[in-house]
């Protein structure tokens, strides 16, 4: 048994606020995410309200889902919003060329999405079409959504059954403009981002946070050029800039884009490789953050990681373009390591969206196409266990004596941690990345006394453990036993391959 690790936390020195929006989600017209995942139609045997699955809504409400990005992804730059309004049987069809080359009937459109957001209590994050759309189309969409008077678009919305305008706090200016969103040069896109942002207007008191399509993983040049497209950020205030945030996309895979690695079958080396690739997010946030800091010392522009998560080879027998994959304990730890990084960079990272919510990539929820059964994945449970971090103030953790392992040419620390405080409650997140060895962690708690400590644990006997309709709770949180009060704080032992949260009631 190895020496205990010491984790020093100053409970009285809170840092940057951890926005609840880093716990955001993403729903694309891709495979069974929208159709069969969120939306089954009113005639379905699956219980629904206006076609939207009730079990999915209930499960996501339990996560306090803060925002939902839609309609893509790559799909967004092919999407023309007018095709998705009006009577469903009269909506034009289109080809979903990115995802399975299937015909999209547009039965889930603007009204259905906004209805879904209202049911979820989530803020809509709409991704606008820069790749194949027009400035006028974008301008009309935001008018349609948010205008309250008798303007042409507000009148059209009313004709389609919605009197009151909606609130749309987040609007994306394109998606992956360097790739599926038009294969643009960054200089060209930076100009378009300024232009499109101008026409995403604030109507009727609705203030929009505009997010320009940002870099692909390590592409610092993209961030650099986007940041130079602002006027002098040392002088102007945030409201004067054309867009308020820029995005970043980074996926975790153990192979390459031709053979990404498997969700369920992996060896110990691939376990560590996935976790080390997940930890690369920390470096990305640091390096993109440094580029942004040079131009924007007051941190007026936010970094929005609006696509992240694992991307494995599709499950055997499923349509390759539908990106359906299973989700194991390893995916859960990939998520917890990401959240630790997002918490540490809360002064720059204002929002993040896991890809994607239902039935696609690192999903929260999987639905069975035959029986309709809903399964919560191990990743879902990390989101649920972390709800206490939403809008809390980050606390630095200094970890001492953490062993590491050589992976992929670098050193992977075998424990990851983060913490936050909200009023009289502190929440500490601890991940034991070691596949075989348990770890004892001594929390050295300074600055405030605590009255009570309770813990929750997510683990399993197999690293590839996952949930299915027959075994929906194979990986689910349980009470973390054995929390021991010590002179300096408390001591706790985490099993191999596990994630735990400790909630402290402060004096
Ligand atoms: O999330 C799946 C796809 O990944 C998105 O559509 C695209 O933006 C990214 O390449």
TrEMBL record:
Keyword check for Magnesium: no
Query: EC top class, in one word?
Result: hydrolase
Looking up Pfam families in the UniProt record yields: Alpha-L-AF_C, ASD1_dom
Q: Which InterPro entries match?
A: Alpha-L-AF_C, ASD1_cat, GH, Glyco_hydro_b
Please give the superkingdom of this protein's source.
Answer: Bacteria
Asked if Hydrolase is a keyword of the record, the answer is yes
Transmembrane portions of the chain = none
Show the SUPFAM superfamilies listed in the entry: (Trans)glycosidases (SSF51445), Glycosyl hydrolase domain (SSF51011)
- A single Gene Ontology molecular function, please? alpha-L-arabinofuranosidase activity
Q: Which reaction does it catalyse?
A: Hydrolysis of terminal non-reducing alpha-L-arabinofuranoside residues in alpha-L-arabinosides
Q: Start and end of every Alpha-L-arabinofuranosidase C-terminal domain?
A: 306-498
Annotated EC: 3.2.1.55
UniProt keyword terms in alphabetical order: Carbohydrate metabolism, Glycosidase, Hydrolase
What does the similarity note say? Belongs to the glycosyl hydrolase 51 family.
On assembly, the entry states: Homohexamer; trimer of dimers.
Under which name does UniProt file this protein?
A: non-reducing end alpha-L-arabinofuranosidase
